[in-house]
Amino acid sequence: MSIHGTFYWNELMTRDPEAAKAFYAETLGWTYEAMPMEGGGSYTVAMIEGRPAAGIFEMSAPEFEGLPEHWFSYIAVDDVDARVEKLKAAGGTVLKPPFDVPQVGRIAVVMDVRGAAVGLMTPVAMD
After folding, report:
1. Do residues 121 and 78 lie in contact, with contact meaning Cβ atoms separated by under 8 Å?
2. pTM for the whole thing?
3. What angle is formed at CA 66 by the lines to CA 104 and CA 77, rounded to 5 degrees?
4. pLDDT bracket for residue 29 (50, 70, 90)
């Protein structure tokens, strides 16, 4: 169950998903399931004991050039669109406006007033 205002999901942003999968399988015991993405390709869901643990996203698009590999977090919110408006009013920046991910939820990528990036997500379970 997701609770508004709490961290909900983490994903590894990497240029080499296969190497990352091998590393975390060896060190944490993760197994993986592929989730098809709109527009092609797939997103990797890391599993532990049959439960989702994290995601692995390949940073192959030009927009990721110069960005180091990193872990990225998402905070569960009750209404992404409304929270993005509050963020803008408070001086935050929208990096990627709200968009829907089928069977996952509605997501936006934002920056706070100090420049820290984070994802906001209204998971399907909160709808």
Report:
1. no
2. 0.88
3. 25
4. very high
| pLDDT tens string 82-113 | 999 999 999 999 999 999 998 899 999 999 99
HSE, CB side, 13 Å, CA atoms: give it for residue 2.
Answer: 22
Residue 116 CA to chain centroid, in angstroms?
15
Tally of residues, the chain: 127
DSSP 8-state secondary structure symbol assigned to residue 126 = G
Domains of the chain are 7-126 (3.10.180.10)
Instruction: Write the DSSP assignment of 43-81 as a string of letters.
Output: EEEEEETTEEEEEEEE--SGGGTTPPPEEEEEEE-S-HH
Residue partners of 16: CB distance under 8 A and separation at least 6: none
